[in-house]
Amino acid sequence: MSEATGIFGALRRLLSPRLESCLVCGRSARLGASLPLLCESCAARVPRIARPRCPICGRAHGCPDCLRPEAALRAFVMNRSAVVYDAVMRAWIAEYKYGARERFAEPFSILLEQTYRRMQLELSKPFAESGPFAFPRSVFDSSRRSSAWSADWITWVPVSAERLEERGFNQAELLGRRLAGRLRLPAGELLARSVHTGKQSFKTRAQRLQNLDGAFCLAPNLDPRFFKQWDSIGSGKDPRGSFPIRILLIDDIYTTGTTAAVCASVLKTLEIGFGRPVLVYSLTLARS
Which residues contact 223 (CB under 8 A, 6 or more apart)? Predict the structure, then answer.
């Protein structure tokens, strides 16, 4: 083999996309594809929610849950989910949560990022004022220079110590930290699980609410960066500030919205200490 052939071969290998095995089927997956670590065939099976039908929970089709009178009392502004929780996603999320397949966090976090970008457009002026959904004025902040909506802080639904020991990681936290890195937004734990509850999967709405009653509280040691951020923003003409703190709550699956609602209620207690509104937005991987 000539020296030139060897050099060209080395360059070709260097410039060619590196291949890894697909997390799902084991076939070669090209890095840098639409969803890393998934081959194009498996990536095409992802049931994305491009246009949610329900403006509150982000469901892909009609939602009777959000028509209930009590839905208006939920402490979060809205939820958006990346995909429909169908048989494919059920199997993949189960592998991620229970099968110690943490590498699924890479394609999952990209799906969340894409959904966050659409959420930004949906909540940004002038689109939000003339778009398909009507949002209350409280979700906007007239004091900010930019009309583009953005989260101020990313946090996640916590798991109990028992669940953490069982799985070895918090699936929502891993997604939240990956997403924060992609968006270059601050992130940290704001909630703690004060009660270990059983799985919510097969419980009714009433059972879920009762099961989660008192299950969450503010984290005992809140990230000092969280306080520092609002102290610096509040300095100036109005020392306490008047515009809202926008918190993005991450979880893997949205079923009835009970978990998001209970967590958001706890997060809104931060309003007392900060003297300004706290708006909670839910972003989940899958919507059942």
Answer: 188, 189, 190
